[in-house]
Write a structure and sequence with these properties.
Layout (H helix, E strand, L loop, with lengths): L6 H7 L9 E5 L7 H20 L6 E3 L7 E7 L1 H6 L4 H18 L10 E5 L3 E2 L3 E7 L4 H20 L16 E7 L7 H12 L5 E5 L1 E6 L14 E6 L10
Length: 249
Amino acid sequence: MNQVWDPTVVALHKGERPKTFGLNLNALWPGPRERAFAEWYGGWSARLLDTATATATDNCAYVYPLVHLHVTVATLCSFREHDKRPIGEEQAARLTAAWKTALLKASTMDDFPRQPFKVIAQPPVLEQVAAIITYEDPTGGIAAIRRCVARALQDSNDTIAPLLPSPKSFAIPSIVHTTVLRFHAQPAGDASAFRAAFRQSTQGMGPIEVEVDAIEMVLEDVPFMHIPVDAAHRLLTLPMVERGPGAGN
């Protein structure tokens, strides 16, 4: 089985930042804040680079910097769908405003979490297109937020749906995960050597617990969340606290 490389990742690997438009609802962005997680993740990425270099397979993979890690709670407007059917600035602004209103409504629903909760990161696993960290959601906090967002969209569908580039623009992932690696080229020679290097890099890794204390609606104007962490991109923050109508920043 060959690994699948992505032309967009070629640009990111070169340090380029291609422009696009997307809206994402994230948790754990920009990356979990716990120092222990940074050490856990940094140790893994260093081991992967060392092992891949030793086996001459280090010329194919792009490992995400910690600052670009995130858990997608919901894709509010897929940048890929926008790139296929671009929308104008005025429509994008209306869509952004409509989503803000819907998410504020979601945050007042009875089952929206009212306090921070823990999720448990598992060691990275390699798939054909990417490597991911999956999270256990033992309290059901992420699942509850996703249900609230889905209900809010149902209530606001007449407003939001006509503004989306396509019906595929909105999606709720079926798992809780963070993408940590994508391919900008095929591994040199036999791809099995890179897969072996990857397996070696994760040996001895255990799970690690991190806290979710807020979700954020962000402007994804560079693919795969390779965006600055600033007010221009952080469109709405919903902390895990008691709130009433009109809450949020």
